């Protein structure tokens, strides 16, 4: 599911049209142009099980979260809900971009590993 050398799952699917319509009916203030339709799992690398992606992350305060969806391997998303933001921060104060109590590593952990890997690969003589 994930390319060699990355720590993110990257399983991909599309937001079904009926689910997009339901989302817009349920949340009429959502900017329809900002609803994500090409979905990519943002969690740490895994090959089976539930995948998660953000559908919309532009709510004004006081909403402290985003609209998320999930799907199983080989299936399409069939629901969405607002999940509160993860409250974890890296030692450098980078916020985790996932939802509260998400499975797997925090988003900043994967970004730091990818950055370290890129720096190590960039230092090799070619």
TrEMBL record:
Residues 104-126 are annotated as: Disordered. This is Uncharacterized protein.
């Amino acid at each position: 599911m994930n390319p060699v050398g990355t720590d993110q799952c990257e399983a991909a699917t599309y937001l079904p049209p009926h689910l997009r319509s339901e989302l817009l009916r349920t949340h009429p203030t959502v900017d329809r142009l900002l609803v994500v339709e090409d979905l990519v799992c943002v969690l740490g690398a895994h090959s089976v099980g539930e995948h998660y992606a953000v559908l919309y992350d532009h709510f004004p305060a006081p909403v402290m979260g985003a609209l998320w969806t999930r799907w199983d391997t080989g299936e399409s998303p069939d629901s969405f809900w607002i999940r509160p933001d993860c409250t974890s921060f890296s030692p450098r104060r980078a916020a985790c971009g996932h939802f509260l109590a998400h499975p797997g590593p925090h988003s900043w952990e994967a970004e730091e590993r990818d950055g370290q890997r890129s720096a190590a690969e960039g230092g090799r003589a070619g």
